[in-house]
């Protein structure tokens, strides 16, 4: 599998639990030197604050941290308004926003919240069309028209234009969605939780194949991985369940062996604040060093 040679970045996955000190955590993440902060988007969860409102508040209280929904639920967010929100947040944050995007999941909850339950084929079509609509609304054009099977524009006016090219990163898993990622997306953002990394290598290869078939260099698609695990002081208990040395080796393999350039820490156990600090101090610099050594 290829290593695309991108500079490594590291992020933190924030669960928007209303009872947690979310803004304090975001400021701490920036102070620790993380590059990104991703916020999951499940608005039907009664204990969660709204992801977009939280991202806006975090943007106002940070200066360097790059932000993205991890990932936005298109099933509950109309694409033209999603494009407007993304462009506005990018402008107000000084170009620090990227758009993580997914077709939707937990369809019973989506339907209960007023959304439309879609079949796999409809969800695919909605996402493919939604990407086109979003990019049209970022174009700066006027009298924008689009007639899809699910989404449409009937003379919309674009604006504000994002101050930097916002990446569209797809949370994709199935073969058709991986193909769409390779053909049109700027990034791929899956989650690695337990087990082994075999499936993620196979899925990345599907993205590469789709990109090549579409006439794109596979390196055009960034690889962002949510890594769920726990840093421990004891022996390994599996993938991303062990001491810092193990994490360094495993993340290095994912970078140089599969091509991931960004790792977003999703703490699955233990003291979250302590886990963030240990990851920032004992994992991030050593992964950067080890990847640089293996590349040379």
Structural description of this entry:
By secondary structure, this protein is α/β, with parallel strands linked by helices. It has one domain (9-295): TIM Barrel (Alpha-Beta Barrel). The chain has nine helices and 13 strands. It has helices at residues 22-31, 51-61, 79-92, 107-112, 120-137, 175-184, 198-213, 244-258, 272-295, and strands at 9-14, 36-39, 66-69, 72-73, 99-102, 144-147, 152-156, 168-170, 187-188, 191-193, 222-231, 241-242, 262-267. Strands 1, 2, 3, 4, 5, 8, 9, 10, 11, 12 and 13 form an eleven-stranded parallel beta sheet that branches. A two-stranded antiparallel ribbon has the order 6-7. The mean pLDDT is 96.
Which features would summarize this protein structure in a list?
296 residues, alpha/beta, TIM Barrel, 11-stranded parallel beta sheet, two-stranded antiparallel ribbon, monooxygenase, oxidoreductase activity, acting on paired donors, with incorporation or reduction of molecular oxygen, oxidoreductase, Luciferase-like_dom, F420-G6PD/mer
Shape: globular
Rg, Cα atoms, Å:
19 Å
What is the CATH superfamily label?
Luciferase-like domain
Tell me what the CATH architecture is: Alpha-Beta Barrel
CATH class membership: Alpha Beta
Average residue pLDDT: 96
DSSP strand content: 15-25%
- Low-pLDDT runs of 5+ residues are none
Number of domains: 1
Summed up, the helix count is: 9
**CATH fold type:** TIM Barrel
Protein name: Alkanesulfonate monooxygenase SsuD/methylene tetrahydromethanopterin reductase-like flavin-dependent oxidoreductase (Luciferase family)
GO molecular function: monooxygenase activity; oxidoreductase activity, acting on paired donors, with incorporation or reduction of molecular oxygen
Keywords: Monooxygenase, Oxidoreductase
Domain Luciferase-like: 19-227
């Amino acid at each position: 599998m290829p290593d695309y040679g991108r500079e490594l970045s590291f992020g933190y996955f924030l669960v928007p639990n209303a009872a947690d000190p979310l803004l304090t955590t975001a400021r701490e993440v920036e102070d620790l030197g993380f590059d990104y902060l991703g916020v999951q988007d499940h608005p039907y969860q009664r204990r969660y604050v709204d992801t977009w409102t939280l991202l806006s508040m975090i943007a106002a209280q940070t200066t360097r941290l790059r932000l993205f929904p991890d990932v936005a639920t298109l099933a509950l967010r109309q694409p033209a308004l999603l494009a407007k929100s993304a462009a506005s947040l990018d402008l107000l944050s000084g170009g620090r926003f990227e758009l993580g995007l997914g077709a939707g999941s937990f369809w019973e909850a989506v339907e209960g919240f007023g959304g439309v339950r879609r079949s796999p084929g409809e969800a695919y079509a909605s996402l493919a069309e939604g990407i086109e609509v979003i990019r049209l609304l970022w174009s700066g054009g006027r009298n924008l028209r689009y007639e899809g099977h699910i989404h449409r524009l009937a003379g919309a006016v674009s604006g504000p234009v994002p101050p930097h090219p916002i990446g569209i990163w797809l949370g994709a898993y199935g073969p058709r969605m991986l193909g769409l990622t390779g053909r049109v997306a700027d990034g791929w953002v899956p989650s690695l939780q337990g087990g082994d990394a075999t499936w993620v290598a196979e899925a990345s290869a599907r993205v590469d194949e789709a990109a090549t078939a579409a006439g794109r260099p596979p390196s055009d698609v960034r690889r962002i991985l949510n890594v769920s695990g726990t840093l421990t002081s004891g022996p390994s208990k599996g993938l991303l369940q062990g001491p810092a040395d193990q994490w360094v080796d495993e993340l290095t393999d994912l970078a140089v062996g599969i091509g991931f350039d960004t790792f977003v820490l999703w703490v699955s156990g233990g003291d979250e604040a302590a886990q963030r600090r240990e990851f920032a101090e004992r994992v991030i610099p050593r992964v950067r060093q080890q990847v640089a050594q293996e590349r040379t």
